[in-house]
Design goal:
The protein has about 350 residues and is α/β, with parallel strands linked by helices. It has a domain of about 200 residues: Rossmann fold, CATH 3.40.50.720. The chain has eleven helices and 13 strands. The longest helix is centred in the C-terminal third of the chain and has 24 residues. About 0% of the residues have low confidence.
Length: about 350
């Protein structure tokens, strides 16, 4: 199969990819993308036998992914699985993923991200195999940039336990790349959404509430600071960038974003408009919901990804919001048909 276009060299499509955290939003879409390129895809969770893998089910690829149990915070488990699977590429999407939850569970957040990343890097170093590693960073690492667009040279000023853990893993990857020659890269992804987002994330919380309000199942939605701004992209596009980062001959870190920033208020307005409602009649503001150290504005500069990976986002916030609503309504309609059958 032909490889995807990249700048600076390519790796032929196919081989074995190990996705850590395959049950999450990015894991599902990445598995789908890699399968389309001819990869054998192996996915992990802490207990593969007990996990439901709803995202893989929704995408119709549950039976195409080999699933194994693995604890990334357990070095022996990490070593055993990687030794057995013999992957050509590893995508580290595992660990605690919620900024808000990290304030309540900082220890678990640090362990799952920091310890998990170093276990992974040490395993690759000790096995001494030509494994390529993708590490999931986060735009949260930048903190507040004063409205300036963050790029790969922007200073990291993390403002949450989650962001601190991600920043640490970013430097871990950079150090192992420099000291041991490991082909490892971190993707610094800005917010990216999809129908696979769970409701603990504000975007899906808004979409779910708007759809329920439209059908009379719910009356009001309570949110925190509506003035915060984020660069919201479409998750299925972002996983393409992950793979292209590993396809390059030289490992580098990349900011992945749309370059378009919108407020949470604008996102809410778009979602409610998609179900025929005026958000101002249904949304309440509660200052207590603001995080202890909130980031006021997230703005990304994806110029390097465009130049070196030939990657550009095509779906921006208004369309992201509409697509999430359409998917939610379609799923509800399908569920109604099944109940009636």
């Amino acid at each position: 199969m032909a490889a995807e276009p990249t700048s600076g060299g390519t790796v032929t499509s196919g081989g074995t990819a190990l996705i850590l955290g395959v049950g999450g939003q990015d894991g599902g879409y990445l598995a789908q993308h890699l399968l389309s390129l001819g990869y054998r895809v192996v996915g992990t969770s802490r207990d593969a036998a007990a996990s439901r893998f709803d995202g893989l089910q929704m995408l119709g690829i549950r039976d195409q992914v080999d699933l194994v149990s693995m604890s990334l915070v357990d070095f022996r488990s990490t070593m055993q699985v990687i030794s057995r699977v013999e992957p050509d590429e590893i995508y580290n999407l595992a660990g605690q993923t919620s900024v808000g939850l990290s304030f309540e569970q900082p220890v678990e957040t640090f362990e799952s991200i920091i310890v998990g990343t170093v276990n992974l890097l040490e395993t690759i170093r000790m096995l001494n195999r030509p494994i390529r590693l993708y590490n999931a960073g986060s735009s949260e690492m930048f903190g507040n940039t004063g409205g300036e667009a963050a790029n790969e040279e922007t200073i990291l000023r993390p403002r949450s336990p989650y962001a601190i853990a991600k920043a640490t893993s970013f430097w871990q990857v950079a150090q192992y790349r420099e000291a041991y020659g490991i082909h490892a890269a971190t993707g610094i992804l800005f917010n990216h959404e999809s129908p696979l987002r769970p409701e603990r994330f504000v975007t899906q919380k808004v979409v779910a509430a708007a759809c329920r309000i439209a059908t009379g199942e719910q009356q009001q939605l309570t949110l925190g600071d509506l003035s915060i701004a984020r660069d919201w992209g479409w998750a299925p596009e972002y996983v393409v960038a992950m793979r292209r980062m590993l396809a390059a001959d030289r490992p580098e870190d990349f900011v992945i974003a749309t370059g378009y920033t919108a407020t949470l208020e604008a996102f809410v307005a778009e979602v409610f408009a998609a179900v025929g409602l005026d958000w101002r009649q249904h949304v309440e503001h509660d200052p207590a919901l603001r995080r202890p150290t909130e980031i006021d504005c997230g703005r990304g500069d994806p110029a390097k990804a465009a130049a070196r990976l030939s990657w550009r986002a095509t779906v921006r916030m208004p369309e992201v919001a509409r697509r999430m609503v359409a998917a939610r309504l379609a799923n509800a309609a399908h569920a109604e048909v099944r109940r009636a059958a």
